[in-house]
Amino acid sequence: MNAPDKQTNNNAILSLLKMALFCKCPKCHEGKIFHSGFFTFELKEKCETCGFDLSRSDSADGPAVFLIFFLGFLLVPLALIVEVKFGWPVWLHVLIWGTLGLILTLGSLKPIKAFVIALQYKYRKSDWDDNPPPRV
Known about the structure:
The chain has helices spanning 3-21, 62-86, 90-123, 125-130. By secondary structure, the protein is an all-alpha fold.
């Protein structure tokens, strides 16, 4: 892969990340893909802007697995460092790290789910339009 191709690919991934951060449609980058509500992780049937059929999108457990790995890698070492340096009581660890883990999980699950759906759309676009993937 030459330098211009790498730059184009990097720009495409950054565009997908920006779109996913705001949970926008992978096709038109405008319509919202989730039903309204902070605790609602259900996809809409269709994009309200372009009519893209979101019911065929399935991120499965990918976003949850990414979060488990990322947050585990982030929070466990921090908790261990704090324990060694400051010696907090167990109840304080549970309160701080449990709350932080919950906030980070709920705040990032929708964008990660939107990013996985956008990656599926980007790399299966021709198949998606001609031959939709079967629903399980």
